[in-house]
Task: inverse folding
């Protein structure tokens, strides 16, 4: 396994729409293992393949990392089929948008479809924090970032902060 480099905003690769995976071969299994290792090392709760520069529709996440436990979830070709309700995602952040956190309006419940690492079709409902993580990661698959979902004013604030930081570096 290896730690992969995480692509950060404003890298244009983050805007790519990932391609569906049609064959879950050894290279996909390796990608899953590398992405999981990269996510845990960061540390982060979720990671989409495009965040390590690979435009293939694949997400990994783990929302139960308490007490050193790991419960890795893998979803290939994930998509939201239905969504309902409103939920304020407090202090949302992203490994590709470092040093910035803000509240984001999300759906409260989602119905998601995809394929697991063994190629089995998956279809399940998620709510609460699980639903938020799925929406965030599936956004990445579609070339979207959480800063697209906040007010223009807040986004401008972030961009200004980023420009200052880049100048210092
Ligand atoms: Ni993210």
Result:
């Amino acid at each position: 396994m290896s730690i992969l480099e995480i692509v950060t905003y404003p890298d244009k690769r983050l805007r790519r729409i990932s391609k569906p995976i049609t064959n879950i071969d050894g290279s996909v299994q390796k990608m899953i293992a590398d992405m999981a290792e990269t996510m845990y090392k960061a540390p982060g709760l979720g990671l989409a393949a495009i965040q390590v520069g690979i435009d293939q529709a694949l997400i990994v996440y783990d929302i139960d990392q308490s007490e050193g436990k790991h419960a890795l979830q893998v979803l290939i070709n994930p998509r939201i089929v239905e969504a309902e309700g409103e939920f304020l995602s407090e202090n949302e952040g992203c490994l590709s948008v470092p040093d910035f956190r803000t509240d984001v309006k999300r759906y409260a419940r989602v119905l998601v479809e995809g394929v697991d690492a063994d190629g089995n079709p998956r279809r399940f409902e998620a709510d609460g924090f699980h639903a938020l993580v799925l929406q965030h990661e599936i956004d990445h698959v579609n070339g979207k970032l959480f800063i697209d979902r906040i007010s223009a004013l807040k986004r401008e604030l972030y961009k200004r902060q980023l420009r200052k930081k880049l100048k210092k570096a």
Observations:
- The two ends are 31 Å apart (CA to CA).
- The domain at 12-86+107-144 is CATH 3.90.45.10 (Peptide Deformylase).
- The chain has a mean pLDDT of 95.
